[in-house]
Amino acid sequence: CHEGHCPNIPTTWMMTKARAMNREVKKQCKSQCNEKGIKAQCEKKWLAKENYVLPSVESACFSDGKVKECFGKKKTSAKDDQKKCATDGTKTCKEQAEKCNKKGKTDKTFKDAKGFCDDRKTLCEEQVTENCNKELKAALEDGQAECEKADEKGLEECKDKTLKEEKEQAMGACKKTQGPKCDKKCKETCDTEAMGKCLKNLESKDDEAEMFCKDFWRLLHNSAEIDPATGDPVVFLSSKKQ
Question: What Rg value do the Cα atoms of the chain yield, rounded?
Answer without folding.
Answer: 40
